[in-house]
Amino acid sequence: MSTVKETVDVEVPVHTAYNQWTQFEEFPKFMEGVEKVTQLDDQHNRWTTKIGGVRREFDTEIIDQLPDDRIAWRTTTGDTQQKGLVSFQRLDETHTRVELVMDIEPSGVAEKAADMSGTIERRVKGDMRRFKDYIEHRGAESGAWRGRIKPG
């Protein structure tokens, strides 16, 4: 299993950065290789990705969510095995640090090669830069879900 960690500082208040991250169906707008995310309910999403020419579908479950602080998830179905945590730290009234940590278990030959070559890490870094550009350009979130999901 590989761990990827990336941090970006965004020029929006913490609630704006957090609220935008809860809009999972908009992830294809800034995440490379993510074709579609369908939110099934407050805790579950279905993902369609295409990485290295390989299309995968998998489901994720949010296992911990605290508004303006963190969202943690894990995969529940499909060949893709991952878990992750995105956290939000208020720097001041108009700046937020967003940190993403993901544990990824590459499943196929293409994914293992992408992991070994650093492609997955570069993609995550690019996704975080694109999130920064996306939210700063918008200046406001496109929606929000402020519910609490407790672990266990």
TrEMBL record:
<protein>
    <recommendedName>
        <fullName>Coenzyme Q-binding protein COQ10 START domain-containing protein</fullName>
    </recommendedName>
</protein>
<feature type="domain" description="Coenzyme Q-binding protein COQ10 START">
    <location>
        <begin position="10"/>
        <end position="131"/>
    </location>
</feature>
<dbReference type="InterPro" id="IPR005031">
    <property type="entry name" value="COQ10_START"/>
</dbReference>
<dbReference type="Pfam" id="PF03364">
    <property type="entry name" value="Polyketide_cyc"/>
</dbReference>
<dbReference type="InterPro" id="IPR047137">
    <property type="entry name" value="ORF3"/>
</dbReference>
<dbReference type="InterPro" id="IPR023393">
    <property type="entry name" value="START-like_dom_sf"/>
</dbReference>
